[in-house]
Amino acid sequence: QVQLVESGGGLVQPGGSLKLSCVASGLTFSRYAMSWFRQGPGKERELVASITNTGGNTNYANSVKGRFTISRDNAKNTMYLQMNNLKPEDTAMYYCNSKGIIGRPYDYWGQGTQVTVSS
After folding, report:
1. Distance between CA atoms of 77 and 99, rounded to whole angstroms?
2. Which residues contact 42 (CB under 8 A, 6 or more apart)?
3. Residue 103: which pLDDT band, with cuts at 50, 70 and 90?
4. What's the mean pLDDT in 83-110?
């Protein structure tokens, strides 16, 4: 059974930093591209950043470019999201995701970790 478990969220002041982690189990992690999504209060879920299975390519939402960095350590089955210069509008539940087709379609989600940016 595939599990994605996020951690690292919390309350931080504007301008602060947090590093989120997503630990995967039940799958060969190095085969899977991964993404971070977020859903703020009253907002739709949006893609924040994505990374290929090898980590060789990354993509970011315009709203986080230059502030957030996605990375992964395939030896540890873990993906990260380093978030710097956080803004109140970054407040959201952050989710780890992997979606695609390997033999058959798959769409895996974690339970989320809350990030609140407030003074």
Report:
1. 16
2. none
3. confident
4. 95
Distance of CA 12 to the CA centre of its chain: 17
pLDDT at 87: 98
Q: How far is CA 25 from the centre of its chain?
A: 16
Query: Are the CB atoms for 15 and 85 separated by under 8 Å?
Result: yes
Q: Comparing C-alpha atoms, which of 48, 35, 40 is closest to residue 116?
A: 40
- How many whole angstroms separate alpha carbon 50 and alpha carbon 70? 7
Measure the CA–CA gap between 35 and 98, rounded to whole angstroms. 6
Q: What are phi and psi of 60, to 5 degrees?
A: -135, 150
* Alpha carbon distance 42, 36 (integer Å): 19
Give CA–CA dist 37/68, Å, rounded: 13
- 91 pLDDT higher than 90: yes
CA atoms within 13 A on the CB side of 60: 13
d(CA 15, CA 38) in angstroms, rounded, equals 19
